[in-house]
């Protein structure tokens, strides 16, 4: 029952972490792209048929914390957060050192709006296993979204020092470098994230904006085009492409790209503002 590694998603209000089975992962020039997981995993694993079979396992092994953790993960992927929370609670009750279950519960807490509880669960997972990179990344993203950028940076840095192969650590640290205007470092991190997950559009958007900030229009344009090719339904990618057209003086093409961004997300302010600036050239 493996899942793909978590991919990137936006906007920042969407959530970040991994549901895990035991120790194995289930499978202006600042980017708004953040990370996500449940939006990209195999929803079939949260199907009623799969949950039914997992419930049979729980019934046969009522004292096995792993059985509850696995079913809780399936509940989470199926959007049944209260059932998921109950299963992770039970797994932790049976095994208070089950750090993966704490991280899984943190994700569900976050989906339910319990941000401080989520941070506490990630912190407990780290206390039990100080080398658990997924917990640093999950907690770091919570800190980042709350505006606690130094704590977020420290967590992403720690995950990277642990030799994580999770692209989220590099992507999110890149966003922080970018917000500080440290675009060379941001480009390096986005490039590493791309090397670890080349089919994810968000690191291309991030790197493209840092290229743009450094005046490297051709590189920026190539990255935005790649992002659109990978997923043409992301408003940010089209708005970023439009920004290059605008800087090149081609208002007609810029307006068309801004219009597509606004169609995808009618409330996306960069698209609204860009279209207002360039619509006369459409």
UniProtKB/TrEMBL annotation:
UniProt keyword Kinase, yes or no: no
Signal peptide: 1-28
Positions of TPR repeats: 65-98, 133-166, 167-200, 201-234, 235-268
Official protein name in the record: Tetratricopeptide repeat protein
Keyword Repeat: yes
Domain of life: Bacteria
PANTHER family to which the protein is assigned, alphabetical: TETRATRICOPEPTIDE REPEAT PROTEIN 6, UDP-N-ACETYLGLUCOSAMINE--PEPTIDE N-ACETYLGLUCOSAMINYLTRANSFERASE SPINDLY-RELATED
Protein keywords: Repeat, Signal, TPR repeat
């Amino acid at each position: 029952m493996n899942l793909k590694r978590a991919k990137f998603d936006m906007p920042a209000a969407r959530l970040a972490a991994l549901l895990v089975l035991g120790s194995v992962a289930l499978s202006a020039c600042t980017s708004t792209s953040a990370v996500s997981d449940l939006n990209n995993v195999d929803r079939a694993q949260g199907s009623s048929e799969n949950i039914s079979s997992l419930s049979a396992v729980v019934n046969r092994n009522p004292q096995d914390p792993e059985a509850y953790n696995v079913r809780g993960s399936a509940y989470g992927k199926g959007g049944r957060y209260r059932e998921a929370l109950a299963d992770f609670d039970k797994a932790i009750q049976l095994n208070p050192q089950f750090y993966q279950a704490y991280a899984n519960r943190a994700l569900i807490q976050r989906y339910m709006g319990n941000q401080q509880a989520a941070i506490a669960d990630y912190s407990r997972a780290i206390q039990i296993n100080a080398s658990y990179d997924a917990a640093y990344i999950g907690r770091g993203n919570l800190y980042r979204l709350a505006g606690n950028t130094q704590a977020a940076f420290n967590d992403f840095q720690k995950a990277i020092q642990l030799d994580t192969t999770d692209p989220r650590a590099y992507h999110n640290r890149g966003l922080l470098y970018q917000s500080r205007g440290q675009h060379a470092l941001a480009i390096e991190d986005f490039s590493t994230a791309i090397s670890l997950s080349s089919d994810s559009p968000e690191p291309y958007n991030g790197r493209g904006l840092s290229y743009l900030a450094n005046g490297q229009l051709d590189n920026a344009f190539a990255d935005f085009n790649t992002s659109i090719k990978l997923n043409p339904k992301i408003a940010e990618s089209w708005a970023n492409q439009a920004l290059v057209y605008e800087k090149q003086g081609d208002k007609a093409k810029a307006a068309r790209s801004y219009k597509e961004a606004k169609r995808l997300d009618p409330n996306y302010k960069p698209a609204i503002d860009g279209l207002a600036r360039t619509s006369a050239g459409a």
